Automatic annotation (TrEMBL):
MF term (GO), any: methyltransferase activity
Protein name in the entry: Methyltransferase domain-containing protein
Any one GO biological process: methylation
Keyword list, A-Z: Methyltransferase, Transferase
Pfam families: Methyltransf_25 (PF13649)
Top-level taxon of the source organism: Bacteria
InterPro entries per record: Methyltransf_25, SAM-dependent_MTases_sf
Domain (Methyltransferase) ranges: 58-150
Keyword set includes Transferase: yes
């Protein structure tokens, strides 16, 4: 198997403020997933079976809060979790032990996991599959380990790989951002690919393949698009909005959610998050030729990506982001070394020119999109 993609530092997880830290967003997501503003995806998973599950396998568990909640709520009797980063495995283990909960953990790379435990009647993907490179191999393994009639439950990011949002999404979020009072607006910064690959090479590695791959091996019984193209972009890591009291921001958060609903309904292809319940299709596991084709396809893709993690062609916004970032770095370096040199003035002028060109190109593109209606 070609080189795995593994996380490097747990500091990137559980930091910053997310859209689902806001009460109105929680209400919105609960309603989409369970039909009730006060019922979580966990309640929905229990309702789906009508009785507690016996044993869950949970992927990429982080600090283990998901398994602890599932057991505490009586959704499942026991759980086993997989996580790569040793400090997170340790944190999850000791928190479960402290409460005497029947949960075990294994430090392993999910891409290479053998899934030798089980069988399980529940598999949990909570923000997990979007970190998996060998997605076909892993989802196939989950299908094998689930008992007939067992359940795969997913709550995950299924949007563009590496959060490389297309222009339409970025522009739609930008327009809604302008409707917010200035002090609550998001500082819209397009995800800079080279930085992402250093901070967390697993982030959204093949998120856009999740739905297709799940449907290969599972019969989907419920699939809910949860949106996010506008709301996730404007409300996650929006430090200014999260610094204000909820009763002050609530009406604006709801405005963003209203736009998000309309946009997601009109553009399902730009959905970012999904909730799903599915049962294994064990018959597919007998289709040896098909399985070999999918495995070969995955091996080719992973081998071609190599260590640099270059899977897909860059978006135009990524190229502009990198050009601006490189230019800013050059200006900074020159300012520090020779503050008054003619070279500094030259670079600054070049940077100004580039910024001007970006603005003109953005205006042109917006005009074009408007004309297309
Ligand atoms: C977004 S966090 C989600 C954690 C947890 N499921 C939750 O919802 O709080 C993603 C987790 O996947 C883990 N991870 C990423 N790649 C992995 C791999 N190849 N094998 C095992 N764990 C991995 C990360 O260390 C991190 O804890």
């Amino acid at each position: 198997m070609s080189s795995p993609v593994v996380p490097v530092d747990s500091a990137v997880y559980y930091s910053g403020a997310y859209w689902n830290d806001l009460p109105a967003v929680v209400e919105h997501l609960h309603t989409r997933m369970s039909g009730h503003a006060d019922r979580t995806w966990m309640h929905r998973t229990l309702e789906h079976r009508g009785a507690p599950y016996r044993a869950a396998l949970s992927l990429n568990v982080g600090n283990g809060w998901v398994e602890r909640d599932l057991v505490r709520l009586g959704v499942v009797e026991s759980a086993h979790g997989i996580e790569y980063l040793p400090d997170l495995v340790e944190a999850a283990r000791s928190a479960a032990a402290e409460e005497g909960l029947p949960i075990t953990y294994e430090q392993a790379d999910t891409n290479r996991a053998e899934f030798h435990r089980g069988p399980f009647d529940l598999v949990v993907d909570h923000a997990a599959l979007h970190h998996v490179a060998h997605i076909d191999r892993v989802v196939r393994g989950l299908c094998e380990r689930l008992e007939p009639g067992g359940t795969l439950v997913g709550f995950d990011y299924v949007g563009p790989h590496r959060n490389q949002y297309p222009w339409e999404v970025w522009e739609a979020a930008h327009q809604v951002n302008l409707l917010l009072p200035e002090h609550l607006r998001q500082e819209m910064t397009y995800p800079h690919l080279p930085t992402m690959l250093v901070d967390d090479p697993t982030e959204a590695v093949h998120s856009e393949l999740i739905e297709e791959t799940v449907r290969r091996y599972f019969e989907v019984e419920q699939w809910e698009d949860l949106g996010g193209a506008i709301a996730y972009l404007l409300l996650t890591h929006n430090a200014r909005l999260h610094a204000r009291p909820h009763d002050e921001t609530d009406e604006w958060v709801r405005l963003v959610l209203d736009h998000d609903r309309v946009f997601t309904a009109a553009h399902p292809e730009h959905n970012l998050f999904a909730f799903f319940l599915a049962r294994p299709r064990h018959d597919v596991l007998a289709e040896t030729e098909q399985l070999a084709t999918w495995s070969a396809e995955e091996e080719r893709r992973e081998a071609a990506a190599g260590d640099a993690g270059s899977y897909y062609p860059p978006t135009s916004l990524q190229l502009l982001t990198q050009a601006l970032s490189d230019e800013r770095d050059r200006v900074r370096a020159l300012e520090q070394s020779e503050p008054t040199s003619p070279a500094v003035r030259g670079v600054k002028a070049a940077a100004r020119q580039l910024a001007g060109a970006l603005v003109r190109s953005a205006r042109h593109r917006i005009g074009e999109l408007r004309r297309r209606g």
